[in-house]
Amino acid sequence: PMIYIPGLYQIVERVDEDGVNEKTASFALITRTANDSMQGIHNDGPNRHRMPLFLTPELEQAWISEITEDDMTEIFHFELPEDGLFYQPVYSLRGGAVRPDGKHKFDYWDWEGLPPLGDDNPRELQTSLF
After folding, report:
1. The model's pTM
2. Which long-range contacts (CB under 8 A, 24 or more apart) does 79-82 make?
């Protein structure tokens, strides 16, 4: 199924100190509090337990239409059911790391010792031998 991620964008035009016209574009994706599954996946860093706001095709149409603040608040509170998301361990999505088995980076990867989803502290670290 198709899902949509709403966002905001802005294009700013200005003249720099040399008189040259510059355009700067920026955008932001709308995020929300993570659902139970995503809390176990996105569980580190300053934005831990956040996830993109995923919209259905109907809500996507509402998002790009003229809407009231109440409509926008309702959209912000939408939570895609967990069974609408698919997730699995992968080797690496970042950088150009090549998998040792030659498979695609999105294919399932069996990480030995990977804790269950959501278990942030599977083993206490050994701080002393004595």
Report:
1. 0.69
2. 79/32, 79/35, 80/3, 80/35, 80/54, 80/55, 80/56, 82/35, 82/36, 82/37
Which H or E element spans position 76? helix 69-76
pLDDT digits (tens, 9 = 90+) for 12-54: 999 999 999 999 999 999 999 998 888 888 777 888 889 999 9
Q: Which of 74, 105, 100, 80 is nearest to 90 (CA)?
A: 105
* Identity at 53, one-letter amino acid code: L
SS (H, E, C) 61-72: HHHCCCCCHHHH
pLDDT (tens digit per residue) in 59-100: 999 999 999 999 999 999 999 888 888 888 888 877 787 889
| C-alpha pair distances (Å), 98 with each of 13, 46, 91, 124 | 41, 28, 9, 31
> Domain spans of the chain?
7-83, 88-119
